[in-house]
Amino acid sequence: METLTNRDLSQHHQLLGDLFPNLSPEEAWESYKLPEDKIQFFHEHGYLSHVKILETEQVDRLRLELEQLRDPNHPKHDLFYEFHSNESTDPNTVLFHSLGHWRISEGFHDVLWNPRFVVAASQLLGNKAVRFWHDQLFCKPAKHGGVVAWHQDYSYWTRTTPMQHLTCWVGLDDATVENGCLHYIPGSHRWELLDRIDLAGDMESLKDHLTEGQKAQYDQKVAIEMPKGYGTFHHPLMVHGSYENYAEQSRRAFVLNVFADGTRSNSDEELLQGVPPIAKGKEMQGQFFPLLYDREAASK
Description:
The chain has 7 helices and 14 strands. With 300 residues, the chain is an alpha+beta fold. The protein has a single domain (24-73, 81-299), classed as Jelly Rolls, CATH 2.60.120.620. Strands 1, 2, 3, 4, 7, 10, 12 and 14 form an 8-stranded antiparallel sheet that branches. The radius of gyration is 18 Å and the shape is globular. The termini are far apart.
């Protein structure tokens, strides 16, 4: 029988199942640390792609949970922070987008503590302890999947400070140009913070906010085509987006957003829908912002 304790999985800050190995911080580091040249690439270009995050059986499990979560009649539907069956502003396309599924299903809860993910995240944050911010699902159906317009993640996150955030996008399908894979503008993480735009609106609307030099760089975008189970990490100012899916295959993905431990609230309002506010200036922590990885914990 379900109880109030296990209904909302955000109350549990550790692995609940056996989908991912339960390793100590040091064991995880030794097993999955990225080589130094990968770290250097990230800092130079603002992203690091083709990082293996999931095995095939883990992809299969998360796909199954995803199909259950997309049902608006799911018994835990009220635990989502946001749920958009179709967020696209184009009536001819569909973009499923949600936040908060880590609270609902075991696999999507446990992937937060996946050692392949947390070790890389810590390294790319400067070997700092990693704390969870929020998750996302993005699904583009075959033949009529909608866009995610060019944007910077931190333009939506200024309610937290300082800017020491990181995003990891992981495909549950092979990601290709044809089915709407992620695109980056290399080096755009060195741009200033731009205005936020409608995430599921006009793909090119960000161009209205760019200088002539930035527009020239904008044309140097790169497509991040990856097999399912692989992830790409990017800086919070990295300009990125994804085009329509006109292919015969769907394009399903989840996103894990994290920040370095010590990040503070920059607002007295609620930071995520339904989550109790954290007073401006107070550290982000507690039930909804758990610590995911701290290598130094092993020596404390």
